[in-house]
Amino acid sequence: MTKNMPKPKVAFFSFTCCEGCQLQVLSCEDELVDILNLIEIVNFREAIDEKRDDYDIAFIEGSVSRQHEIEEVKKIREKANVVVALGACSSTGGLNCLKNKFPMEEVKKVVYGEKSKYYKYFDTIPARPLDAVIPVDYYLHGCPITKSEFLNVLKALLTGKRPDMPNYPVCVDCKMTGNICVFEKGKTCMGPVTRAGCDAICVTYGAVCWGCRGTVDNPNTESHEETLRIYGLTADDLVRSFDLYGGWNKYGGSK
Amino acid sequence: MDYRFLPKKGLSLFVDGLLKDFKVYGPVKMDGFPVYEEVSSAKELLLMHSPSHITPKKYLFPQRETLLRFKTGEKPQVEHAADADNQVLFGIHPCDIHAIRLLDRVFAYGTPDVNYLRRREKTIIIGTECLPDKFCFCRSVNTMTAANDFDLFIHDIGAGFLVKIGTEKGKELLFRHVKTRKATIKEISKLVEFHKKKESMFTASINAEPSTLPLIYSGSYDSPVWEEIGKICYGCGSCNLVCPTCYCFDVRDDISLNMKDGERYRVWDGCLLEDFAKVAGGHNFRKTRGERLRHRFNRKFQFQVDKFGGLFCVGCGRCSRACLVNINIVEITNKLIEERETGKKE
Ligand code: SF4
Ligand code: SF4
Ligand code: SF4
Ligand code: SF4
Ligand code: SF4
Q1: pTM of the model
Q2: Cα angle, residue A20 at apex, residues A18 and A21 outer, rounded to 5°
Q3: C-beta atoms of A192 and B234 within 8 A
């Protein structure tokens, strides 16, 4: 990028989610000065009051889970040259898709209260990832995203490269980090079918991988079910393990 | 070969001496498992341990390594990054000593790999003995003992340590830091006895002479085995990444946020990973997991043998240990041997 080129304008949007991924972006304090030298942020509810619609790059956080959100993301897609799904809710549907297991009328009753006679009027549809509604150019996976991956995508976009997105499982990150596999310690893990890129952080800190980054392109799901069974998971445990972050693939279509 | 006797107390003196001029890496316990880590005294070191998950090759060929640093701008600059400290790798098992010997050949072949070779030059290798677990099969591929390719080899014989001298450098270090004496025949025979005991302990073994394995593999291209194990394999690459003789890497660039400087680095890669043999345009030379497994096994027992004149599997069993779906290199090899002998492919 040369000095006299105008800075790309970037906007951040948030739909159904906890906004934790935007917080990750905001935690880039040390890098903020460099970032603002490179881009102009024109829309970021969590950080600035200004709101403009002349953006080039849109980072969209959250699942789409209401009818009117569909219209909103479509509008964003029309305006932005590049759309990046920011975080699990947006990139794979994330935890939100757990609700898709149930009929929407039930969900409304639980969320808004059966006693409320208005629950019927709340707008809710099965939660879905961004790319179920609009074409998405790039993905930042994870619940939440990692700061370094966000910066890498940003740098790639600014230098005109395709951002790298690992298509190998978390087991690779475990080897890079030198972790002892949790299966050796009698625990189980979703790492062998989960897309890496997080440095296997949960395993590194003594937990297991729950699969928040979604699966690799071609996961061997049958094999993993078998492995989990061998390591003592019941049929219910299995469903839970695969549903936690895999809800969209499984229940996506069901209404 | 020169054998010395080092009294029990001598080991910690020796390690303290080494620590003055070297970083010392050796086997320690982490969560109950042996791993190679930097140590600051002999006390931390395990003298007898089962094979580590990640191989000590990480000190010669790290998981992630900077190759060059660059500056952009009017006058772009590129600077080669081949930083290496003097280091001692302590507690290296015979299989891993053989593996390093093979890596030495690989990285010196063709355009020499400056980063590896610079590290290697600054590395002292001190071997120790071990006993096989159910995955070890070094005996079947002639790597149960190491005759050389180490600087020193230390074996605990109860009253003290038997130290085998491998190189002048090793000898000089030993003599500089501790008092030793020539080992007696009786002391040396303890190592021979140990090897006899070790030899009798293997439960995993390959049912053919190592020299016949290239032929067996070249004849098994169409074996149904590949598809069978391809079905259960994850393509997770764990077998590659824990293997002491796998040396593939991917090169990437990273530019700083200031857009003024950056680095080129490499990271471990593995032929079981889906994108490994994918080329620009998206074509994948080894699309199925079965094809990728066949490729990896052949690299160990056939292709590399043709190129470097020796088997590229040192029998450490790490790939089988790491595989969550129990794809076991000894069992697969024996199956191929059986198919060949019976002429029958199930
Ligand atoms: S802990 Fe999980 S992610 Fe890590 S190697 Fe084991 S299975 Fe793979
Ligand atoms: S280890 Fe698994 S659950 Fe944890 S961040 Fe990585 S992908 Fe998500
Ligand atoms: S394979 Fe042989 S040399 Fe290697 S750890 Fe096992 S017993 Fe020791
Ligand atoms: S470790 Fe096992 S499952 Fe993973 S790639 Fe290797 S053979 Fe396949
Ligand atoms: S192929 Fe397997 S057994 Fe052979 S050296 Fe590599 S990890 Fe060890």
Answers
A1: 0.94
A2: 120
A3: yes
